[in-house]
Amino acid sequence: MPLVDERGAAFDLIRSLGLPMGVWRVPSAADLGDVAPVPLVMLAVYSGADIDAARSLFKRTPTLVLGIGTGPREGSRALGLGAVGYMHDTLDAIELRDTIGESIVRAHWRRSRAAS
User: 42-74, pLDDT tens digit by residue?
Assistant: First the structure.
């Protein structure tokens, strides 16, 4: 699963979770063009402006937003713009893993619904 993370802090956090899946870092959403279709993309954001700038990504592919330093306050903005999930770096490891799993399920549901 690709993680779009310009700065790298989110990648370090996700690697620390020991997820049972491969996660790789890409520096920008433009770099996703070389990645085969994936069920979910994670996007690191460091401000509300980063969320606003990602609107087109949310429309193209199911996206889970990981807020670094943004706390819970940016969640409703991300979801309102079309992200399938939002989590932030102050959640504990279990909550982060659960949010990733829930977002994968939500992305699958959206994809299957769109195909109908």
Answer: 999 999 999 999 999 999 899 999 999 999 989
Cα 22 to Cα 54: distance, rounded to the nearest angstrom: 23
Q: First and final CA of the chain: distance in angstroms?
A: 25
Beta-strand pair 63-67/85-88: parallel
Q: Quick one: which of 9, 26, 18 has its CA closest to 88? A: 9
- Phi, psi (deg, nearest 5) at residue 72: -75, -15
pLDDT confidence of 111, banded at 50, 70, 90? confident
Handedness of CA 25, 44, 91, 77 (dihedral sign): negative
pTM, whole model, 2 decimals? Answer: 0.92
Structural contact between residues 38 and 57, judged by C-beta atoms closer than 8 angstroms: no
